[in-house]
């Protein structure tokens, strides 16, 4: 069994809480050098800086449209363009039921102008608004996004995967609560994560976070759990199937999804 370590959200808050004002967001959007996201520029996704400069206006447009439909939910909390895109996609799908077509990856959305324009059009045509949350006496964690789905065709080895979660309670100071996220691979080795605090809303009762991870060891079932005060939160245990990379989406057949369901369902019933 692999070594189990703990990644707390508390350490991820220091950058944001020290710069918690609109001026920070404005400076990021107005200065492309602050939003260059070195990880993207070094990756095969973004071949040159000119390509990045073409992407920046699209991100700005996407952020503006999302904020018009869900005011004061998302804040620019980092300078990682790819992460910003993944987080807005995650939130848009959950809050206003808008998502890119299922046969394209985030990479394709980011670099294909036609796909991105189609995605933007969905925002302009939407008349949905997100429902209001109610404070609860207990700590309530609501998870959503590609990285927390039991099966998603783009949950692959060596790919950056992301999900979001809301932490809601009647305790307005729950920002400092010891909530920990643990991800284990099929051999029960700990998977490194990047846990980011995004924003606070719902009159201070709800905190929004994102969690990124990159499965690298082997394909199979990955387990995501949440802990509070060193106790596992029983209703927050997720089993995610990570598959080997394939050249294209179409090569992944329906029979593979059936196999995944056969593996996950008995395990979930046995919790």
Task: Please provide a written account of the structure.
- The chain has 271 residues and is α+β, with helices and mostly antiparallel strands.
- The chain is 33% helix and 22% strand.
- The chain contains eight helices and eight strands, in the order βαααααααβββββββα.
- It has helices at residues 14-18, 22-30, 38-42, 49-69, 81-95, 106-111, 113-125, 254-269, and strands at residues 7-8, 140-144, 161-168, 179-184, 193-201, 206-213, 220-228, 231-242.
- Strands 1-4-7-8 form a four-stranded antiparallel beta sheet.
- β5 (193-201) and β6 (206-213) form a beta hairpin.
- α4 runs parallel beside α7 (113-125).
- The protein is globular.
- The protein starts with 6 loop residues before the first strand and ends with a helix.
- Residues 1-22 and 36-49 have low confidence and may be disordered.
Summarize the topology:
Elements: E1 7-8, H1 14-18, H2 22-30, H3 38-42, H4 49-69, H5 81-95, H6 106-111, H7 113-125, E2 140-144, E3 161-168, E4 179-184, E5 193-201, E6 206-213, E7 220-228, E8 231-242, H8 254-269
Antiparallel strand pairs: 1-4, 2-3, 3-6, 4-7, 5-6, 7-8
Helix pairs in contact: 4-5, 4-7
What is shown here, in short?
This protein is an alpha+beta fold and 271 residues long. Helix content is 33%, strand content 22%.
Characteristic terms for this protein:
four-stranded antiparallel beta sheet; 271 residues; single chain; 8 strands
């Amino acid at each position: 069994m692999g070594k189990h370590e703990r990644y707390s959200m508390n350490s991820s808050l220091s950058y944001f809480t020290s710069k918690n004002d609109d001026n920070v967001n404005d400076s990021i959007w107005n200065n492309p050098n602050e939003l260059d996201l070195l990880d993207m520029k070094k990756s095969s996704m973004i071949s040159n800086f000119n390509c990045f400069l073409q992407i920046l206006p699209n991100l700005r447009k996407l952020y503006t449209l999302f904020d018009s439909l869900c005011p004061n939910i998302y804040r620019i909390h980092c300078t990682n363009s790819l992460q910003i895109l993944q987080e807005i996609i995650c939130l848009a799908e959950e809050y206003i039921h808008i998502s890119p077509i299922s046969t394209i990856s985030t990479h394709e959305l980011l670099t294909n102008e036609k796909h991105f324009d189609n995605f933007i059009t969905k925002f302009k045509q939407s008349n949905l608004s997100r429902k209001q949350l109610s404070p609860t006496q207990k700590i309530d964690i609501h998870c959503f996004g590609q990285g927390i789905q039991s099966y998603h065709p783009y949950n692959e080895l060596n790919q950056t995967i992301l999900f979001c979660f809301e932490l809601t309670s009647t305790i307005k100071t729950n920002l400092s609560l010891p909530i920990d996220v643990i991800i284990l691979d099929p051999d029960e080795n700990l998977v490194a994560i990047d846990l980011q605090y995004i924003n606070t809303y719902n009159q201070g009762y709800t905190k929004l976070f994102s969690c990124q991870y990159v499965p690298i060891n082997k394909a199979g079932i990955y387990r995501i759990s949440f802990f509070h005060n060193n106790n596992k939160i029983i209703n927050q245990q997720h089993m995610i199937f990570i598959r080997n990379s394939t050249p294209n989406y179409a090569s992944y057949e329906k029979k593979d999804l059936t196999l995944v369901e056969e593996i996950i369902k008995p395990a979930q019933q046995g919790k």
